[in-house]
């Protein structure tokens, strides 16, 4: 019997989808925590904030210029995505200044999760399929994305 083949992400879209999956897992984990799991919630939020901010910067520097240049209505798509990123940054900063004991902490995290899940669905169901039809070196772009992420962290 053959051993299962592990898929190694090789394209920029593969890497972004992995980030998206991890973000959704984080949001689900946070939502499943009990009301009294304050320390765990704070730890999850801090890690998510680091990962998400790194992802946002990498997307804006690697992916968005390509979308603007190569996709129909690309500049409008990028503008909408930048607004969503700015809203996410605002919520992350707000959470960073809050105590997990704050009654609005969970609600603010939930709003961030809702915003990012909408953003993820839009990218994965609309933008990525369009971008995959553009003649680009997606493997080289994956390397560039990883370089940008390393510079951010």
Largest sheet: none
The whole-angstrom Rg is 17 Å
Unreliable stretches (pLDDT < 50, length at least 5) are none
Q: Quick one: overall form?
A: globular
Give the structure's gist in a few sentences:
This protein is an all-alpha fold and 153 residues long. It has helices at 12-32, 38-70, 74-96, 105-131, 138-152.
Keywords:
single chain; 153 residues; globular; mainly alpha; 0% strand; Hemerythrin domain-containing protein
List the helices and strands and how they pair.
Blueprint: H1 12-32, H2 38-70, H3 74-96, H4 105-131, H5 138-152
Helix pairs in contact: 1-2, 1-4, 1-5, 2-3, 2-5, 3-4
Protein architecture, described:
Residues 12-131 form the Hemerythrin-like domain. The protein is mostly helical and 153 residues long. It has one domain. It has five helices and no strands. The protein has helices at residues 12-32, 38-70, 74-96, 105-131, 138-152. The chain is globular and about 50 Å long. The N and C termini lie far apart (42 Å). 21% of the residues are buried.
């Amino acid at each position: 019997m053959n051993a299962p083949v592990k898929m190694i992400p090789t394209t920029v879209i593969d890497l972004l989808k992995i980030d998206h999956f991890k973000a959704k897992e984080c949001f689900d984990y946070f939502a499943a925590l009990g009301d009294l799991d304050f320390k765990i919630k704070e730890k999850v939020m801090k890690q998510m904030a680091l990962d998400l901010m790194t992802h946002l910067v990498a997307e804006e520097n690697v992916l968005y210029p390509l979308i603007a240049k190569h996709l129909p209505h690309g500049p409008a798509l990028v503008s909408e995505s930048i607004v969503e990123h700015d809203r996410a940054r605002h919520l992350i900063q707000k959470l960073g200044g809050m105590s997990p004991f704050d009654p609005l902490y969970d609600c603010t995290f939930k709003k961030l999760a809702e915003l990012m899940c909408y953003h993820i669905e839009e990218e994965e169901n609309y933008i990525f399929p369009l971008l995959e039809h553009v003649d680009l070196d997606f493997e080289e772009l994956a390397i560039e994305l990883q370089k940008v992420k390393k510079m951010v962290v």
